[in-house]
Write a structure and sequence with these properties.
4 strands, 4-stranded mixed β-sheet, 4 helices, alpha+beta, 86 residues, globular
Amino acid sequence: MPNIEIYTSPLCGYCHAAKRLLDAKGAGFLEYDVSRDPAKRQEMMQRANGRHTVPQIFIDAHHIGGFDDMAALDRAGKLDALLIDN
């Protein structure tokens, strides 16, 4: 499995949806709660080119974007290829 990282906050519905989608795909991930860690929020914004909304999703250090971006990849049939080791 690739290294998947997701920056979230507890009350974010899109964060929960992103985690459900990854769980449904059997993809393990590291989760960072930015609501409790200002340093992680700054790290997220730097890695995500200034995006400040959650979730922000990274697969093997490649910025996927938010839930809508990941869901669009899934609808296009492109997400599964990112979730397997190459």
